[in-house]
C-alpha cells in the first residue's frame, strides 16, 4: 500500500521479525511507548514476540514507512481469535488494529493523525473489512482523541488481563465521514 498525504508518502510492508527487531526494540522500549507495555523488553523478547506474531494465522505485523524511512508499526488481528476473544460479540468483517508511531526528536505537526489515517486506509482497502476494532488503555487520552478524529466511537470499557481498555469501533462509513468524504 502507498498513500500520499499533505506531509508525504506512506507505504506499509510486512514486518521482518529478525531484520526489523533492533529498530522495533528501540521504539517499544522508548518512554513514549509506555502503553505498548514492552518498556523492559530485551532485543530477544522483541524478536520472540514478533516471530510469534509472524507465525500466527490471525495476527499480522507491518512496518510503516514515511518517505521510505521506517516511521510506524501496525498490527492487524482477527478479534475472534486474538486480543478480544470472549470480551465482545464480533461481527463478520471486524478487524482489530494496533499502531505505534516511532519516537522522534523532530516531530511533524499532524504526523500521528496522518499515520492512523494511512493505517485505516490500509485496513479498509480490503473489501472484507467492515469495521475496525481497537482496545486502547482507558487512560490513554491522546489515542482516544486520535481514534475519535478518524471516526471511532467508544462502546464500553472492558477488562483485559493486562489493562482496563476502551473498546471502540469504526465502520468504513464513519471513517469516510470523519475524513469529509461523502458516503
UniProtKB/TrEMBL annotation:
Coiled coil regions, renumbered to chain: none
UniProt function note: Acyltransferase required for the direct transfer of medium- to long-chain fatty acyl moieties from a carrier protein (MbtL) on to the epsilon-amino group of lysine residue in the mycobactin core.
Domain Acyltransferase MbtK/IucB-like conserved residue range list: 13-60
Superkingdom per UniProt: Bacteria
GO biological process, any: siderophore biosynthetic process
UniProt pathway annotation: Siderophore biosynthesis; mycobactin biosynthesis
Database matches in InterPro entries: Acyl_CoA_acyltransferase, Acyltransferase_MbtK/IucB-like
GO molecular function: N-acyltransferase activity
Protein name: Lysine N-acyltransferase MbtK
Pfam family, any one: Acetyltransf_8
Amino acid at each position: 500500500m502507498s498513500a500520499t498525504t499533505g506531509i508525504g508518502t506512506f507505504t506499509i510492508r510486512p514486518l521482518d521479525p529478525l531484520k526489523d527487531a533492533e529498530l522495533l526494540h528501540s521504539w517499544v522500549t522508548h518512554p513514549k511507548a509506555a502503553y505498548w507495555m514492552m518498556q523492559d523488553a530485551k532485543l530477544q523478547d522483541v524478536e520472540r514476540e514478533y516471530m510469534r506474531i509472524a507465525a500466527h494465522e490471525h495476527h499480522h505485523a507491518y512496518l510503516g514507512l514515511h518517505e521510505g524511512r521506517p516511521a510506524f508499526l501496525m498490527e492487524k488481528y482477527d478479534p475472534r481469535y486474538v486480543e478480544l476473544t470472549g470480551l465482545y460479540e464480533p461481527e463478520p468483517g471486524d478487524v482489530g488494529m494496533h499502531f505505534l508511531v516511532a519516537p522522534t526528536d523532530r516531530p511533524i505537526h499532524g504526523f500521528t493523525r496522518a499515520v492512523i489515517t494511512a493505517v485505516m486506509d490500509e485496513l479498509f482497502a480490503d473489501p472484507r473489512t467492515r469495521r475496525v476494532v481497537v482496545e486502547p488503555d482507558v487512560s490513554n487520552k491522546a489515542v482516544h482523541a486520535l481514534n475519535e478524529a478518524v471516526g471511532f466511537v467508544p462502546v464500553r470499557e472492558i477488562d483485559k488481563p493486562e489493562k482496563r481498555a476502551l473498546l471502540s469501533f469504526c465502520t468504513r462509513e464513519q471513517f469516510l465521514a470523519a475524513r469529509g468524504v461523502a458516503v
